[in-house]
Design a protein that fits this description.
The chain has about 450 residues and is an all-alpha fold. Among the domains are: about 90-150, no CATH class; about 240-330 and about 360-450, no CATH class. It has helices at about 5-15, 45-55, 75, 90-100, 105-115, 125-135, 160-170, 190-210, 215-220, 225-235, 240-260, 270-290, 295-310, 315-325, 365-395, 400-415, 415-420, 430-450, and strands spanning about 25, 70, 175. The chain has a 3-stranded mixed β-sheet. It starts with 5 loop residues before the first helix and ends with a helix. Pfam families: Cellulose_synt. Its main location: membrane. Keywords: Cell wall biogenesis/degradation, Glycosyltransferase, Membrane, Signal, Transferase, Transmembrane, Transmembrane helix. It is found in: Endomembrane system.
């Protein structure tokens, strides 16, 4: 907790609306102690909050992000908006199916739902502790609605976002609370493994929701999730779906340089200037967004670079993991992100001599992106050699400048991986990852040679 008045501010929002439906929960944005300058790992999400988060807050409400959130108990207990939300809770059988066998807990839940809150102080604290232990037991929820209609929703690694979607689908709204000083402060993951592990977990959870019965399109059709809020959820859930398509597009440049072909217009064609204009317009727009949000040009580049790295690593692995799980070949595993410590004055306590530099381990998440980085360098070298042959020997055809720009852009984006190829210690890519990446590159080179 960074702001001692955060509970007061949250209560003002929860109790300040004329209709409690307007505020099922209050979500505060994530802020970080010891944030590295220029966001080298692209995980501080400043621009995403200002440009996307605030926009979503103006729809049916901000997503539930897990950390720094205040909930109405009746909402967590599965109450829907309107009169239908209070029906079916009167009989003991219905209460048992919802909340389990604890009489104390059932009475407490019923009082919360109907607003019959007692102001009498708790006399027997020990009995309350015993009830809490009973309800917290692993087998208590068997045969109840826990994990579906009550409590946090099961079925996704991102159970917080899924729970927030369930609340919105029940007709509730949520509220974004931004105060100064920030309500809560945490630590953003530093280094390659921690960042990519977190992003892989998020992407896996999003894709699990997307292909399940909790798909926001279904909840919009059959429940009370608003259409624009559905689009907002889909905007995040399609993160991992982009990965295989972006990978194929990233491979087009190296493929053309290696096989002496072209997929983009030549400089002598009018279509070249259309592609160039789109490239410049997209990157200029992104740059202006960061400047408008008070970020530096370096932060803009770091975030763009991390998007390319994440797409070819964390998102791609998340996509493959969930597809294999769906086909019954594996199970998704919750991977814990290592938490870095920070001091209260905002100085990072990390032991890294270069805290903004990428670190590596033997995680499989580094294999595809390392292979793509190596392949881009090889493709540029082969393409340059072909240009020399064309110039000196007058050979016809071949790739144009567009393919070189495409591969060159990948090399710039993957520069942390290329530094890791020649680095040592934690800053070097392990040999096991290098060998597996080389095998993938060799397979792709063989494919190019045969085509």
């Amino acid at each position: 907790v960074n702001n001692p008045r955060v509970v007061l501010h949250a209560m003002c929002l929860l109790l300040g609306f004329d209709d409690e439906i307007s505020c099922a929960f209050v979500q505060t944005p994530q802020k970080f102690y010891g944030a590295l300058k220029d966001d080298p790992f692209g995980n501080q999400l400043e621009v995403s909050l200002m440009k996307v988060g605030r926009g979503i807050a103006g729809l049916q409400g901000i997503f539930y992000c897990g950390t720094g959130c205040f909930h109405r108990r009746k909402v967590i207990y599965g109450m829907r908006t309107g009169r239908e939300g209070t029906t079916g809770y009167s009989s003991n059988k219905e209460l048992h199916s919802k909340f389990g066998s604890s009489n104390n807990f059932k009475e407490s839940a019923r009082d919360v739902i109907y607003g019959n809150l007692s102001t009498e102080p708790i006399v027997d604290i020990s009995s309350c502790v015993d009830v809490a232990k009973e309800v917290a037991a692993c087998n208590y929820e068997i045969g109840t609605c826990w994990g579906q209609e009550v409590g946090w929703v099961y079925g996704s690694l991102t159970e917080d976002v899924l729970t927030g979607q369930r609340i919105h689908a029940a007709g509730w709204r949520s509220t974004l609370m931004e105060i100064e000083p920030p309500a809560f402060m945490g630590c953003a993951p530093n280094g390659g493994p921690a960042c990519l592990t977190q992003l892989k977990r998020w992407a896996s959870g999003f894709l699990e929701i997307l292909i399940s019965r909790n798909n926001p399109i279904l909840t919009t059709t059959f429940k009370s999730l608003q259409f624009r809020q559905c689009l907002a959820y889909l905007h995040s859930y399609v993160w991992p779906v982009r990965a295989p398509f972006e990978l194929c597009y990233a491979l087009l440049g190296p493929y053309c340089l290696l096989s002496n072909q072209s997929f983009l217009p030549k400089t002598s064609e009018d279509g070249f200037y259309i592609a160039l204009a789109l490239f410049i317009a997209y990157n200029t727009y992104m740059f202006m967004e960061f400047i408008e949000c008070g970020q530096s040009a370096r932060a803009c580049w770091n975030n763009h670079r991390m998007q390319r790295i994440t797409s070819a690593s964390a998102w791609l692995l998340a996509f493959l993991t969930v597809i294999l799980k769906t086909l019954g070949f594996s199970e998704t595993v919750f991977e814990v992100t290592r938490k870095d410590k920070s001091t209260s004055d905002g100085d990072s306590n990390t032991d890294e001599p270069e805290p903004g530099r990428f670190t590596f381990d033997e995680s499989t998440v580094f294999i595809p992106v390392t292979a793509l980085a190596m392949l881009s360098v090889i493709a540029i070298a082969v393409g340059a050699w072909r240009v020399v042959l064309v110039t000196t020997e007058g050979l016809p055809g071949g790739p144009g400048i567009s393919e070189f720009i495409s591969c060159g852009w990948l090399v710039l984006c993957f520069m942390p991986l290329l530094r890791g190829l020649v680095g040592s210690g934690r800053y070097g890519i392990p040999w096991s990852i290098k060998m597996k990446a080389c095998l993938l590159v060799a397979i792709f080179l063989l494919f190019c040679k045969r085509n």
